[in-house]
Amino acid sequence: MKIYARYILTVCLMLLSLGLKAQVTVEQTVDSVAMLIGEQTKLRLTVTFPEGAKLQWPKLKERQYVVPGVEIVESLAPDTLSSGSEMKVEKAYTITSFYEHVYAIPALKVKVNGKPYQGATCALKVITVDVDTLHPNQFFPPKDVQDNPFEWSEWRPYFWLSVVVLLLFVGGCYLFVRLKENKPIITKVRIVRHVPPHQRALNEIENIKKEHLQVSEDQKTYYTQLTDTLRQYIQARFGFNALEMTTDEIISRLQATGDQKMIDELRDLFQTADLVKFAKYSTQLNENDLNLVKAINFIDETKQEGQAVEEKIVPRLSDDDKKTRSNRITIKTLLWVGGIVAFLLLAYIIYNVYLLLM
To answer: What is the pTM of this model?
Structure first.
């Protein structure tokens, strides 16, 4: 019984071994069948094996000969081409040779789960360069690196463009100096607030009251300010030069513009002021207050209703100023345009000169 069991186990192992061996394939190829002496090519090993199996590559190192005359330059890392139930992995070796010959590269062995497998033998033909030994004088040593010859036709456009950039720079300097010489014309817009004459006069009287001039001992200053305020109001309200007229002349011009009682009160005020200013006349405090009230009443009776308005006054430029301002605008425009053009040309020249020098 034991003999039969051992026999069955041996048969199973043999079948399993044959199945595994049938699934492993090795393909050995060379990229170039023929090459010149000193050139390099790739020796490739492509192995297909079941997934999970352990693969071992040939132990070939750099500077090692595959066969005498064929040297390994570099051993590249394996590259998995496909995976699944079967793995397909490729490993390449860079090889070279310095001897003319036809080499037969033997099949390299790989191991899968410890069992060796190999592909087919490859051929590599190394060809030498023909040398004419009958004419040795025709051989020359290696030539040094030579610069490209100078071609004026290649440099001419960039030379003239450089001249243009230089002229633009000189012109820009000249325009900048001109711009500094032509001082800018500064125009200030004034906003004038027009206050009606009666409001201006009442404001002045209010200031007199705040300074308490009507109760001060300096009666001359009080009456001078009060009558000057009334004269300015009359001049602005009625349109005649009351500042340069006497009291009688003012009263005479006002006869047709108001009632007689109001004009008589104004005459009394002006006459009292003339006595104080020129005859050193002294008034009583109540008389000063009464004259102040008379001035306010006269303004209220003769005022024209209106609100303060603001007027924007724009100064007018002379022809020379207009010309100067126009010149400055033109110079600034030329400076900007010239600067942009010069910058673009300079960038274009530098880029193309760099390409010529490369």
So the answer is: 0.36
